Amino acid sequence: MTPKAHSYLFYILIFSIFTTYMTYLTLRNNTTIKLFKREFDSYLRQVPSIRKENFLKIDKSVYNDLLVDTKHCKIPNFHPFDPMVVPLMHKAEWVEDCRKISYHWTYRDGNMINFNKTALKQDGFEFRDLNCCYKTVTRVEQEMTNFDKNAENLIKYSNCIPMTELRTKFNHDEFIMIECSKKLIPLVIYRGFHPIAQPFRSKSTQDKIEYWKNHDNLPPNILILGLDSTSRLNFRRNMPKTVETIEKLGAIEMMGYTKSGERTFHAMSTMLTGYSGSSLIKKCKLTDQGGYDPCPFIWKRLNRSKYLTAYSEDWPDMYAFGTGGFIKQPVDYYLRTLFNAAHDYALPFPINQFVRLSTNWCIGHQTNDDLLLDYTESLLQLAHDYKSPLFTMSFSNTYPHSMDHNLIQLLDETYADFLERMKTKGYLNDTILFFLSDHGQRFGPLRETLSGWYEDKLPNLWIFLPDGIKEKYPDLQDALEINSRQLTSPYMFYWSINFILDKFFPNSNPSEIIFKNETIPRKFTEYNFFQKLPKNLKCSDVGVPDVFCACNPLRELNLDNPMLLLAGELALSQLNAKLPKTCLKLKVGRVNGGAIIENLGLSKTTYIIGIVTDPGKMQIEANIDYFKDIKTFNNISQIQRMNKINKIDVKCLKGDKEFELFCICGD
After folding, report:
1. Residue 431, SS3?
2. Are strands 106-109 and 333-334 parallel, antiparallel or unpaired?
3. Helix spans in 466-506 (H)
4. What local confidence, expressed as pLDDT, does residue 31 receive?
5. Which whole-number Å values give the CA distances from 234 to 344, 393, 509, 526, 544, in the listed order?
6. DSSP E strands: which ranges in 252-408?
7. Helix/strand/coil percentages in the chain, nearest 5
C-alpha cells in the first residue's frame, strides 16, 4: 500500500471516530451538558437570595420542637418542606431515560435470561431475524505482592456464545453481557447486562451452603441499602413512596443519627471496620495504590460465621475505597465486575477503544439502581432457596451524589417497589434491614440554609426487624424505638452488626474475644442500636467530632461582628499554612455566614463563619473555638467547603486529593 493510501485510511478513520462520537452525543441528548446546565441553573437560581445574607439565619423558635432532647443533645425538628427549602425544590427530570435510549429485550428470572417477545415485536423485530450471543465477564486479579492502582478495574470477556433460544439457563456464570445484531448487518443494536447470584460460584460459597444444611436455626440475613448524600429530611422530601413503604413495614427511623466523618470513605470505614478513616489508614498502612485487603472489615467476621457476603456500588470511579480498592475480591459476591464492563461499553465503538466513560447513568435499558436491586433480589432469592444467611450491602452513588438533591425523586418508585416485592416474596421474614446514607448534601444551595447545615450532619437511617425477631426478642424493638430519639453514630452501626452475630450465632467467637488484643484498639465499643442507650450521651461519647455535631443550639451573629472577621482570617491563615506553594493564598473576600455554638456545659464558644474566598469564590465554612476564660481563639480550626471543585482550579495538584478542596492554582 502506498503512503498516499495510508494517509487516506488514516483520515477516514479519524472521520469515522468523529462522526460516531457526534452521533453518540446526539443519541444521549447531550447528557453531560444537560446535567451540568440543570445543576448550574438550579444553583444560580438561588445564589442571590441566599448568599448575600447570613445563610445561618436562625429563628430561635426552631429549638422549641426537638427531635432529640437530652441533657447534652438538642436537635431541632425541621419540617421537610420548611419555607427556606421550598424554593430549592423542583420536579426532577431523567438525565438519561434509560428505557427510551435503549431496547428492553432481556430480563433475568432466577438463573434464566429470557428474551421478551412482546418487547421485540413492539420494536419491530423478531428473534429469528437477530444474531444474539452472550459474553461472560470475570474479574482478573493481581497478586498481593505485585499490584497497582488498576487492580479493581481489570476484567476479561469470554468469546460471544450464540443464543438460539428465547430462554437460556446459566448454572455457573455470574455476569452476563448480551449482544444482538441484525443477521445481515453485523452492527450491535442491543446490549444487555445481567448479574446472577450463583450458589456454587466458589469453594467458599459451596462450603457455607453445605454447612447450613445441618442447622435448623439460622441467624437472620443482614440487608443494607444505601443512598449517597441523602439526609433524613431529603429522603422524606423526595422519596415519599419509599418512606410510606418502609413505615408500613414497621421500620424505625433513627432521628438522631449523626455522621462521624466528612466523606463516604470516612462513613464506610467506621460502619464496616469500627475505625475512623484516619485510624484505618494507619491500621492498614494504606497508600494511594489501594490494597485494603488486610483491613479488618466486618465481612471477615461474617465469613468466619459462615454468612454469604456481598458488596455492591454502582459507580466504579466514585468508589468508597478509592481507585485502588481491593486486590482480591473482598466478598463472595461482588457486582463491581459487571459495572466495570458496563462502563467499558458505555461509549460506542470505536470510541470505547480509547475512552472509558466515568459517569454512567444507564446500564443498557436499566438505571444503575435497577441493576443494584436486581442483583440484591437475586442474592436474597439464593439465601432463601439454599437456607443460608446472607450479608449484602448495596450503595447507590450516581443519582444521589448529584449536586441536584432533587434527583433522588427518580429512584423513589424503584426502591418502594423493591421493598414491596421483597415483602411479598417473604424475603424480609428473616432479614434485618438497614436503609441508610453516609451524610447529607455537602455542596450547593441546600447546604447554604440553616436546614441544610443540619441536614449535612444528619444522614438517613431506618432499621427494620422481622416479626419473628420482634416476637422472640421484644427488648430489641423496644431499644430501637427508644434510641430513635437519641444521639447515635456510624460506630453504633458497626457494633450493631457484631451484636447480631453475638446474639443469633453464639457459636462464633464473641466480640470481646475477637477485639481483645488489637494494636490500635477500636473505640466507642459499648453502644449499639439494639440496646438502650444512656440519655446523657455527648457527641464525643459516640465518635462524632465537634465540627459534625448537631447537638448544640446555634445563635446568629450579625455579619459585621468583628469577631467573625477575626475568626475567618485566622482560619484561612491556618489553612494557607498547609497548602502547597503551587496554591494561591486565600483571603476573606466576604463573610456571608455567622453564628456561635454555645457548647452545653463547656467553657468555650465555637464560632461558625461562612466565607467567600478571594481568589476563587469558594464557599467555605470554618469552625473555630474561642476560650472564654483566656479570651483567645484556638490555633486549630475545622474547615469545610460548601460548593463544588472546579477541576481547572486544581490542575497543578496533578490528581493529589489531599488539597484539592481548598486549592486555587497560581499561574
Report:
1. strand
2. unpaired
3. 467-472, 474-483, 490-504
4. 44
5. 33, 21, 40, 30, 21
6. 252-253, 308-313, 333-334, 362-363, 366-367, 390-396
7. 35, 20, 40
pLDDT band at 637 (very low <50, low <70, confident <90, very high): confident
Q: Is the dihedral of CA 462, 467, 472, 474 positive or negative?
A: positive
User: Which long-range contacts link 322-325 to residues 24+ away (Cβ below 8 Å)?
Assistant: 322/265, 322/288, 322/290, 323/149, 323/152, 323/153, 323/290, 324/149, 324/151, 324/152, 324/287, 324/288, 324/289, 324/290, 324/291, 324/292, 325/151, 325/152, 325/290, 325/292
Gap between the Cα atoms of 568 and 555, Å rounded: 17
44 pLDDT band, cuts 50/70/90, is: very low
DSSP 454-468: HHHH-B-EEEE--HH
Question: Between these two residues, 80 and 288, which has the higher pLDDT value?
Answer: 80
pTM for this predicted structure: 0.90
CA-derived radius of gyration, the chain:
26
Per-residue pLDDT at 34 exceeds 50 = no
- The full set of domains in the chain, from first to last, is 100-194 (no CATH), 218-548 (3.40.720.10), 552-667 (3.10.450.10)
* Mean pLDDT score of the chain: 88
Cα dist. 223→217, 266, 309, 471, 473 in Å? Answer: 19, 21, 10, 20, 19
- Determine the Cα–Cα distance for residues 338 and 353; give it in Å rounded to an integer: 18
CA–CA dist 154, 201 (Å, integer): 19
Q: In whole angstroms, give the CA distance from residue 237 to residue 409.
A: 9
Task: Write the pLDDT tens digit of every residue in 589-619.
Answer: 999 999 998 765 567 889 999 999 999 899 9
Question: Which amino acid belongs to residue 426?
Answer: G
Contact 658, 647 (CB under 8 A): no
Q: What is the C-alpha separation between 595 and 272, in angstroms, rounded?
A: 35
Q: What grid cell was written down for 332?
A: 463472595
pLDDT of residue 19: 60
Residues with Cβ within 8 Å of residue 278, at least 6 apart in sequence: none
For the chain, what's the residue count? 667
Looking at residue 92, its pLDDT comes to: 92
∠ CA 227-228-233, nearest 5°, is 75
Which residues neighbour 92 within 8 Å (Cβ) at sequence distance 6 or greater?
Answer: 238, 404, 406, 407, 408, 409, 410
What's residue 395's pLDDT? 97
- Residues 614/586, Cβ–Cβ less than 8 Å: yes
Separation of alpha carbons 7 and 461, rounded Å: 61
Helices 368-385/412-424 angle, 10° precision: 10
Contact 582, 666 (CB under 8 A): yes
Asked whether 63 and 76 are in contact (CB, 8 A), the reply is yes
- For the stretch 368-416, pLDDT in tens is 999 999 999 999 999 999 999 999 999 999 999 887 899 999 999 999 9
653: pLDDT strictly greater than 50: yes
**Is the pLDDT score of 169 beyond 70?**
yes
